[in-house]
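Problem: given the chain below (174 residues), write out its structure.
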Amino acid sequence: MGDMADGESMTTARHVQSPLMNVPRGGGGGGGAASSRSWVALALAVCVGGAFIYAGALKAWNPVKFAEDISNFRLVPWALGVRMAFYLPWLEIFCGVALIVGWLRSGAIAILTALMVVFIAATVSAKARGIDLDCGCFGSATSGLTFAWHIVIDLALLGALVALWLIPARRAAV
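Solution.
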């Protein structure tokens, strides 16, 4: 317990910090570009994290339907698609929560970015092969959208993830 004497302070590693750490309380101080950038990062994290929590929850609720959606891409065998249908929704939910809470932020961003890149590539590949499919990612909320709108939504999510990667997390005061 005596390791931190004489005014030393402990810092928290960037990947385990919450975006809510060191948010100024009250109306005074802490303004400026860095503060507004932090609020933008927080808003992006909540929106993107919420989208992945919602999408993951819909898939986790009905994994057999999600396995069918995976199978429609005609990229992986049915047995692998079923395994993915039981695993990926929980990964999306966990990463969405991690984005919002701020713990393991870099890892969550990396995983979600990789998932989005793979998903966009799979969607474009299916379209190029003449497969007309409904990805099922957001349930009935996106069922009536065209391919172009699905790609716009996916690219917007990918862009938000890249922005979150580029906006530094709040650091603990030294």
